[in-house]
Design a protein that fits this description.
Length: 447
């Protein structure tokens, strides 16, 4: 096998695997010729044990906790953030799962609008679209984007920004998991690469200039709070291959992608994945994160990827080297500070309550906002915080205490719910839903 060659500048060195039937290693970035600190797989037999995790969902993490519970004592060589990037339909999810399993890491699937609309009780806000009068208030997800990228007067503008906010907070939770348990995380796509979707959509004329400007303004304010990935695994393929795979899956699992004006748009795919992702984002990201890029046109052997990961030097770098710089927090207090920031993430979440009002497509009118607020509050499970909705079988609040508030907050909806609205129509609907549920109707909540 070809050796992994490094450059301090972080430039991508084009390499290929010389083994028949193995994956083509297109690029590896930024290694130093110093003593190695490698990730260890289960197969290697060198997997290090970890101390029991801190129950951060119940207890949070405050300064007083740091006095008796250190952060780095749980870390081992696999306490890393790994992100899998690449075009759709190449099997990123399967690769990410296999890597997570082999390195005893947690797999976190990439965020989708299903995660936005479906609450923790399994009820889907999209199923109440029929109750909405304003078209802009209706749901807009990846399926609608595939068929109409300019629909609903800024539907894509709002979807992209919602995805950015949710991916940002999901990434925070991934970092929280690493800092409190020592277990590494493997996920798909990160908020660091999200800008390519805004820029590509703007170039196609699918989103407003003000939306893109608002995104870049907020991104530049918030993104430096997130540690960049230790490792980025890029699965690549020629655009014609990507389109062929999309057409194939549209016949089975993704029918909404058939004859899509998005996925049949070669110019869009070339721009976003061949130019923005590969030639700009990965080039710049390689300065701070290690990057492995593979030709995945015909799939590949995950064992080869695992072997390549084991060869990477992820820890030992000169103190002035930008590579892995984000993770060199130097002292136990430095790690504890980041751990507290990510565990008690309300301040990071509140960043998005920004006072910028120039992006018209992202802002609802008073009537639209009021209608959507009332609808969100009527979805089963949204009336109270998760774990306190007795109508859905949760225990009585008097018996539901002792740290469960924090756990419920973690499972609450990703969107804000204002449950202060009350009028005769809402009261009537509540009584009607109660009767329908008692009658055993499956769609009792759709009135």
């Amino acid at each position: 096998m070809a050796a992994v060659i490094a450059s301090k500048s972080g430039a991508l060195s084009l390499l290929t695997k010389g083994v028949s039937g193995s994956s083509k290693l297109l690029a590896a970035a930024a290694l130093n010729k110093v003593p190695s600190a490698n990730m260890n797989s289960k197969t290697s037999g060198n997997l290090e044990p970890r101390l029991p995790p801190w129950n951060y969902k119940k207890w949070g993490f405050e300064y007083m906790h740091s006095l008796f519970d250190g952060t780095t004592k749980r870390f081992n060589d696999n306490s890393k953030m790994v992100v899998v990037e690449g075009p759709p339909a190449l099997g990123k999810t399967e690769v990410a799962k296999a890597i997570a399993d082999e390195f005893d890491m947690q797999f976190v699937p990439g965020f989708s609008m299903d995660d936005y609309y479906i609450n923790s009780y399994g009820y889907d806000l999209r199923e109440l679209d029929y109750k909405l009068e304003h078209e802009r208030c209706k749901s807009y997800d990846e399926k609608k984007f595939s068929q109409d990228p300019t629909g609903q007067d800024g539907g894509l503008d709002r979807m992209l920004y919602q995805v950015f906010m949710c991916k940002y907070m999901e990434y925070v939770k991934n970092l929280r998991h690493i800092f409190n348990t020592g277990q590494g995380v493997v996920t798909e796509r990160s908020p660091h690469s999200d800008w390519i979707y805004f820029d590509a959509a703007y170039r196609q004329g699918w989103i407003d200039r003000e939306t893109r400007q608002h995104y870049w303004k907020t991104r530049n304010m918030y993104i430096d709070q997130l540690l960049r990935p230790n490792l980025i695994i890029h699965l690549d393929a020629p655009i014609d291959v990507v389109q062929s795979k999309i057409r194939t899956r549209s016949k089975t699992t993704h029918p909404w992608e058939a004859n899509s004006p998005v996925w049949e748009n070669t110019d869009y795919l070339e721009h976003i994945y061949s130019q923005l992702l590969k030639k700009q984002y990965l080039r710049d990201a390689a300065e701070y994160s290690l990057v492995l890029s593979y030709d995945w046109s015909e799939g590949g052997d995950v064992e080869v990827v695992v072997e390549d990961i084991e060869r990477l030097n992820l820890d030992y770098h000169d103190k002035y080297d930008k590579q892995q710089k984000d993770w060199r927090l130097h002292t136990e207090d430095g790690f504890a500070s980041k751990r507290q920031q990510y565990t008690n993430y309300s301040k990071l979440r509140n960043q998005f309550s920004d006072p910028f009002w120039t992006a018209d497509k992202l802002i609802f009118s008073s009537a639209e906002g009021m209608e959507l607020e009332k609808l969100k509050a009527t979805l089963p499970g949204n009336e109270y915080q998760y774990g306190y909705n007795t109508v859905l079988g949760d225990p009585e609040p008097f018996f539901n205490w002792g740290g469960k508030v924090n756990e419920g907050y973690d499972k609450d909806t990703v969107y804000n719910v204002e449950n202060i609205h009350n009028d005769v129509n809402i009261q009537f609907e509540t009584r009607l839903k109660t009767s329908r549920k008692a009658a055993g109707l499956a769609d009792w909540w759709k009135v």
